[in-house]
C-alpha cells in the first residue's frame, strides 16, 4: 500500500493531476451550492457544452498561430466562451422573453455541435476531443495548473466571501432586492463563477460531466446538513475526497477520470441516501412506540 502511494505521488503527471483535482473538488461544490439552492443545477451542463466551442476556438487559433502543442490555448478559449455563454443565458433568463430551459437547450446543442465541428477543422482527433469531453490526467500541464489555480482562487474568494449576499439572491430575489442588494449584478456573478468553475474542472472531469461535480457533493451534503453554510462546507470536503480518490484509482486502473469520479460520487450519494432513509425509519418507529406507550398508559404519563 505504501509503495503504491509512493509511486503515485512520485509521478510528475499525478502530482499535476492531484493538484488540479484538489482545486476542482474544492471549488465546484461552492458554486454548485448556489445553483442547487436556486434550482439551476443544469446550468453547469449548458456551460460545459458551450465551453467545448471555446476549446475548439482556442485549438483552432493555436493551430493557425503554429503554437506547440496546438491545444495550448484551449483552456483560455474555454474560459472566454464559457463566460460569454454564462452571461448570455443569465441575461436571457432575466429578460423573461425566453425561458431558462430553452436558453439552456440552445447552449446544449449549439455548444457541442460547434465544438466538434471546429475541433475537426483544427485537425484534432477523436482521442484528443475525448480528453476534453471526459477528462484526461495525462493532458494536464503546469500551464493549466497555473490558470486553474488563479481561477480557483477567484472562485473561493468571491463564492465564500460574498456568501451572505449570494445566498440572499438565490433564496429570494424579491427580498434581496428590497434590502438594497444589486440582484442583477449578483445573479450575473453567479453565472460568471459557474463558467469559471467549468473551465477549472474541464481537465479533470471533462466538459460533459463537470456539472455532476458541482451538484452531487451538494446533494450528498444536504442529506445531513442543517444550514446553507454547513451544506457548502461539507460539500467542499466531499468534493475534494471524491476527486482525489477517483483520480488516484484511474492511475492504477485504465479508466476515464471523469466517469470514475462521477460514478464514485453517485455511489456515495446512494449510500448516504440509504443511511438517511434508515435513520428516518428508526426515528419514526421510536416516535410510534412512544405514542403507543402514551395511549396505553395515559394516567401514568399524566401523573409524571
Automatic annotation (TrEMBL):
<feature type="transmembrane region" description="Helical">
    <location>
        <begin position="73"/>
        <end position="92"/>
    </location>
</feature>
<comment type="similarity">
    <text>Belongs to the ABC-3 integral membrane protein family.</text>
</comment>
<keyword id="KW-0813">Transport</keyword>
<feature type="transmembrane region" description="Helical">
    <location>
        <begin position="104"/>
        <end position="125"/>
    </location>
</feature>
<feature type="transmembrane region" description="Helical">
    <location>
        <begin position="181"/>
        <end position="202"/>
    </location>
</feature>
<feature type="transmembrane region" description="Helical">
    <location>
        <begin position="208"/>
        <end position="225"/>
    </location>
</feature>
<keyword id="KW-0812">Transmembrane</keyword>
<feature type="transmembrane region" description="Helical">
    <location>
        <begin position="232"/>
        <end position="253"/>
    </location>
</feature>
<dbReference type="GO" id="GO:0055085">
    <property type="term" value="P:transmembrane transport"/>
</dbReference>
<feature type="transmembrane region" description="Helical">
    <location>
        <begin position="259"/>
        <end position="279"/>
    </location>
</feature>
<dbReference type="InterPro" id="IPR037294">
    <property type="entry name" value="ABC_BtuC-like"/>
</dbReference>
<feature type="transmembrane region" description="Helical">
    <location>
        <begin position="48"/>
        <end position="67"/>
    </location>
</feature>
<dbReference type="GO" id="GO:0043190">
    <property type="term" value="C:ATP-binding cassette (ABC) transporter complex"/>
</dbReference>
<feature type="transmembrane region" description="Helical">
    <location>
        <begin position="145"/>
        <end position="169"/>
    </location>
</feature>
<keyword id="KW-0472">Membrane</keyword>
<dbReference type="GO" id="GO:0010043">
    <property type="term" value="P:response to zinc ion"/>
</dbReference>
<protein>
    <submittedName>
        <fullName>Metal ABC transporter permease</fullName>
    </submittedName>
</protein>
<keyword id="KW-1133">Transmembrane helix</keyword>
<feature type="transmembrane region" description="Helical">
    <location>
        <begin position="18"/>
        <end position="36"/>
    </location>
</feature>
<dbReference type="InterPro" id="IPR001626">
    <property type="entry name" value="ABC_TroCD"/>
</dbReference>
<dbReference type="Pfam" id="PF00950">
    <property type="entry name" value="ABC-3"/>
</dbReference>
Amino acid at each position: 500500500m505504501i509503495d503504491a502511494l509512493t509511486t503515485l505521488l512520485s509521478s510528475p503527471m499525478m502530482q499535476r493531476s492531484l493538484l488540479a483535482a484538489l482545486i476542482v473538488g474544492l471549488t465546484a461544490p461552492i458554486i454548485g451550492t448556489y445553483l442547487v439552492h436556486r434550482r439551476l443545477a443544469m446550468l453547469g451542463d449548458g456551460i460545459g457544452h458551450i465551453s467545448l466551442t471555446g476549446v475548439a476556438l482556442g485549438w483552432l487559433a493555436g493551430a493557425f498561430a503554429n503554437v506547440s502543442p496546438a491545444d495550448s490555448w484551449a483552456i483560455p478559449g474555454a474560459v472566454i466562451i464559457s463566460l460569454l455563454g454564462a452571461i448570455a443565458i443569465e441575461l436571457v433568463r432575466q429578460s423573461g422573453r425566453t425561458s431558462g430551459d430553452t436558453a439552456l437547450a440552445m447552449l446544449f446543442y449549439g455548444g457541442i455541435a460547434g465544438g466538434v465541428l471546429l475541433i475537426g477543422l483544427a485537425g484534432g482527433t477523436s482521442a484528443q476531443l475525448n480528453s476534453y469531453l471526459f477528462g484526461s490526467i495525462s493532458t494536464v500541464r503546469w500551464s493549466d495548473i497555473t490558470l486553474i489555480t488563479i481561477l480557483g482562487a477567484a472562485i473561493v474568494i468571491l463564492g465564500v466571501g460574498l456568501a451572505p449576499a449570494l445566498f440572499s439572491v438565490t433564496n429570494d430575489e424579491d427580498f434581496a432586492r428590497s434590502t438594497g442588494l444589486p440582484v442583477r449584478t449578483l445573479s450575473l456573478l453567479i453565472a460568471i463563477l459557474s463558467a469559471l468553475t467549468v473551465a477549472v474542472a474541464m481537465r479533470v472531469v471533462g466538459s460533459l460531466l463537470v456539472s455532476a461535480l458541482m451538484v452531487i457533493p451538494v446533494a450528498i451534503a444536504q442529506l445531513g446538513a442543517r444550514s446553507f453554510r454547513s451544506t457548502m462546507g461539507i460539500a467542499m470536503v466531499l468534493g475534494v475526497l471524491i476527486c482525489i480518490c477517483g483520480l488516484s484509482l484511474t492511475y492504477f486502473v485504465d479508466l476515464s477520470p471523469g466517469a470514475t469520479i462521477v460514478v464514485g460520487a453517485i455511489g456515495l450519494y446512494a449510500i448516504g441516501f440509504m443511511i438517511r432513509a434508515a435513520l428516518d425509519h428508526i426515528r419514526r418507529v421510536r416516535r410510534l412506540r412512544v405514542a403507543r406507550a402514551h395511549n396505553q398508559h395515559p394516567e401514568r404519563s399524566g401523573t409524571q
